[in-house]
Amino acid sequence: MSTLAHTVADSRTMLRRSLLHAVRYPVITYLVLTPLIFLLLFVYVFGDTLGAGIGGEGTDAYLQYVVPGVLLLTIAGGVTGPALSVSKDLTEGIIARFRTMDISRSAVLTGHVLGNLVQVLLATAIVTAVALLMGFRAPASVLDVLAAAALLAAIGFVLCWLGAAFGVFAKGVESASNLPMPLMILPFLGSGFVPTESMPGWLQWFAEHQPFTPFIETLRALLFDTELGSNGWLSLVWILVLGLIGWLWARFLYERKTVR
Amino acid sequence: MTSAIQLEGLTKSFGEKVVLDQLDLDVAAGRVFALLGPNGAGKTTTVHILSTLMRPDAGVARVGGHDVVASPEAVRALIGVTGQFSAVDNLLTGEENLRLMADLRHLGRKEGARRTAELLERFDLAEAARKPLSTYSGGMRRRLDLAMTLVSRPQIVFLDEPTTGLDPRSRAEMWDIVRELVAAGTTIFLTTQYLEEADQLAHRVAVLDHGVIVADGTPSELKRLVPGGRIHLEFEDQPAFDGALAVLEDATRDDAALALDVPSDGSFASIRTVMDRLEAGRVEARALTIHTPDLDDVFLALTGHDAPKEVAQ
Fold first, then answer.
1. Cα dist. B203→B33, B43, B45, B157 in Å?
2. Do A24 and B92 touch (CB under 8 A)?
3. Contact indicator for A164, A113 with CB cutoff of 8 Å
4. What percent of chain A has pLDDT over 70?
5. Contact A161, A180 (CB under 8 A)
6. Which of A143, A164, A199, B65 registers the highest number of CB atoms within 10 A of its CB?
7. Alpha-carbon gap, residue B285 to B153, rounded angstroms
8. Predicted ipTM?
9. Where are its TM segments located (chain A) (predicted)?
10. What is the Cα–Cα distance from A162 to A158, expressed in whole angstroms?
């Protein structure tokens, strides 16, 4: 078998393993619950006030505003999945077995990344469905919706690699579940829940220069045809940068941790 | 005989601590080789280097003719490793674990399913095949672990303390499996801290202590290296016992059992000397047995400290 065919076959096997894990140990419950709680809380408890604050008509206006932020929150939550599953693998004996077998080096990480990506995308679909039931409507074309889905998938993919890196970096499963925390707060410290202009100066600067603000604004532009501005290419750059960091860091740490 | 595993001057340190110091070994193909030693002797480190998990600081290690540092992939294709700690996927069933191995070894769907069924049957796991591993006993896990190692029919199998922590029955089952593997032509590299295990299974034993091979040979060769052998004599009655005592002045006596132990190297000459003396004193012995030293004696003599005792279960 050629090296490439070998890598693809092994990654597929590892993806199947990761999906079996997902069935036995459904992380997806947490992936769905956290953003749903925030969605319900922000819309039904704070929605009326916040809706007025952004110059709209109460709860419904705020629902339209907050859903892109909640979707990115769901995607950000996906970092935890690969962090946990990779760190769990590394603390158990099975990783030693894999390493004494002639299998593609990257297959273990790739399997976890793809398996967790499937889960986080499923979670995003569920959250979207609930948002639609609550009355969320986007005046977007099919093409725009597809582009929005592709954007979310791409962000999910690079964040899963970052999660895998956290998983290899962590000393144990517990610290692996804590490391991604700061990343999951970022949608709140951006334009996800309130406009950045309403924040104090120093926070506003941070909010406008962190990756989730362009992500959320690009999503809004696709769904509501708002001004895209520089957010499109900023998102692209952030995706490439985060992806490259996650992928290189995960693989570098994995090599270093597993070859002595 | 061709060699399956060769080590030349293998050295490994962790920081200041030298774990393996210039190890030389040659393991013949198709035999069981046991590396015997107490905890911390360097057994697991040796297995880790040979199974490409770790790189040596110096020296050469070849497995199946391939250098473990230069061509680890070639080595990995030949070997199977069952380590000290269970290397099974706890979220999968026994069957799924075996299928995972079959897929990673690229056996193909049909052959993978066939091999999985065969191993489940052989390792007495067919009934539990579709149950989660949380329901498996320690012995079942260990059997599954070994079955996973054997999916690809490896030529060379490393077993790192395969029976540590197992109950006597599971241990005997494990020994049977090892004997079957060897009968089928597999080379086994076994590490153990149980003298009995090495004695039972191995064609050759090397004793490792503080990273140095202190002895290397067949179990009986090792036993001949050390003193501790004796001739054990039992007598019918007190007069016979007293008569024997009179002619065998170097014997240690056991009055209650009417028995004597005479030091001996187990050679024919030493036995004849004892028999000649008894004959001269006109003493009849009821029974005579020859005790060669066991590996416990070997261990004490070679390392200057007691053999490790089995850990309480």
1. 6, 18, 22, 15
2. yes
3. yes
4. 98
5. no
6. A164
7. 54
8. 0.85
9. 22-45, 65-86, 107-133, 145-169, 176-194, 233-254
10. 6
Alpha carbons A45 and B246: distance in angstroms, whole number? 105
- Using CA atoms, how far apart are residues B293 and B225, in angstroms rounded to an integer? 9
Residue-wise DSSP of A116-127? HHHHHHHHHHHH
Better-predicted residue by pLDDT, B298 or A196: A196
C-alpha A147/C-alpha B86 separation (Å) is: 46
Strand arrangement, sheet containing B230-234 = B252-254, B259-263, B230-234, B287-291
C-beta atoms of B53 and A103 within 8 A: no
At A97 the three-state DSSP class reads helix
Phi, then psi, of A255 in degrees rounded to 5? -60, -45
First to last CA, chain B: 40
Reported as type and span, the H/E element at residue A188 is: none
* B14: exposed, middle or buried (Cβ count in 10 Å: 0-12, 13-18, 19+): exposed
CA gap A94, B203 in Å, rounded? 30
Enumerate chain B positions whose Cβ falls within 8 A of a Cβ in A: 51-55, 73, 76-77, 79-81, 83, 85-92, 96, 100-101, 103-106, 132, 148-149
Q: How would residue B249 be classed by pLDDT, with cut points 50, 70 and 90?
A: confident
3-state secondary structure B197-227: HHHHHCCEEEEEECCEEEEEECHHHHHHCCC
Res A27 pLDDT > 70:
yes
Inter-chain CB proximity B105 and A101 less than 8 Å: yes
Q: Which of B46, B50, B76, B89 to mutate to test the interface with A (most CBs of A within 10 A)?
A: B89
Structural domains of chain B in order of their starting residue, each with its CATH number:
3-224 (3.40.50.300), 230-292 (3.30.70)
By C-alpha distance, which of B270, B55, B125, A26 is closest to B262?
A: B270
Closest C-alpha among B25, B37, B12 to residue B160: B37
d(CA A76, CA A210): 13
For residue B91, give the nearest of A25, A96, A260 by CB distance: A25
